[in-house]
């Protein structure tokens, strides 16, 4: 189908043009840079990476070189060449059509409110309980802190981008202060007490560590395309996107690498306890501050919580906009993509995300231990894999769009011509596929086995886990089909998109 020779994938809808009139250009180079730091540098997983000791740091640097840099090049080209609101959804629609892009947007969006409700809110409660006042599990204060965290994140996403963007900016500064202070304190601690530097054998790459860590590192490093979800709210995306991505790439590597290396050098790997490992390591090195250590720990805990808040807020701002644009583009219910005339933000999908987060949080808080809790936690882990799965559709788009839309002006191009484009597309897609497969099939190619069952969650059989995986994926695909059906009236009113370059 076409309108005067323009392919359907390059057309927009009347609803999209109507809603985009409510957008305002608030997003400059300064804002994009700090927004990127909040979407990429997640403080909730620093301890998990460091818990693998030297291997954690080794594979982090490996993935920065062989995934993160190609991924940055990918986003710099598409974000500057096609800077339309919706970012990754628009790129996949132009590459593969509305059906594929609409289905993919559900996976891309849905994992974020689940992540906030099942992971970040619980970590925020634990941090408040450990460093400010004791909170009993399941108490009024436990629910209160969790709900405040969730709905503050939603509220910051609802606010006009001119105001809401300051939450990620403050969160980025908190990351810099927190990690910078920790690095300085580690140097002082090492000078006074010596360091627990890993032996040469600890740095030797191992296959089990590779299998265990690469999916986690991949999940940590994604988020470059998030600012492009607000492309029509950027002041100058053609210039600012490539510029900020290159600088955010370097800064993010430092903000991840420094604390992981510092933890590895201070705390023995067998004493690092997952998500709490970062603050545990901070408590160790902050003994150098003597009587002021308690105050300094409260300060670090506060910046840690602000970093958690800004992570949830930034991902909601980006993923919710992506799903809103998908909805008003005809692949979802029209009401879900409605933007507020007052705030210029997709309030309905923001509230929907808050409701999903709240439901997940309440269930996670009530279940406690037992079989039901185990099953729920497994399902949550699978849903969080949806982000990895969505990139299987997004990353190959760079190759397709260079071929199908080669006429579009590209302020920035991946070096090396089509060979460079193919290399970036293949490398990024490979890592997405690898991270997805190892998440769907824990223990894949581990310990000399095709599938090592010891990698499964306790109390869950291989058959159970696999059934959970495909049930979750099947239900989400069904939701995508329903959404696509509900968008048929919106999709029927296609018009020329003034933002898509026509050959």
Question: How would you summarize what this structure contains?
Answer:
This protein has helices spanning 14-20, 29-40, 46-50, 54-81, 88-96, 98-131, 140-158, 161-164, 166-193, 207-221, 237-266, 277-285, 293-331, 347-367, 371-384, 386-394, 397-404, 417-440, 462-486, 488-491, and strands at 2-3, 6-7, 11-13, 494-496. It is mainly alpha-helical. The radius of gyration is 22 Å and the shape is globular.
Describe, in plain words, how this protein is organized in 3D.
The protein is mainly α and 503 residues long. The protein has a single domain, classed as Amino acid/polyamine transporter I (Up-down Bundle), CATH 1.20.1740. 68% of the residues lie in helices and 2% in strands. The protein is built from 20 helices and four strands. The strands form two sheets. A two-stranded antiparallel ribbon has the order 1-2. A two-stranded antiparallel sheet has the order 3-4. A hairpin with a 2-residue loop joins strand 1 and strand 2. Helix 6 packs antiparallel against helix 13 and helix 11 crosses helix 12. The radius of gyration is 22 Å and the shape is globular. The protein starts with a strand and ends in a 7-residue tail after the last strand. The relative contact order is 0.20.
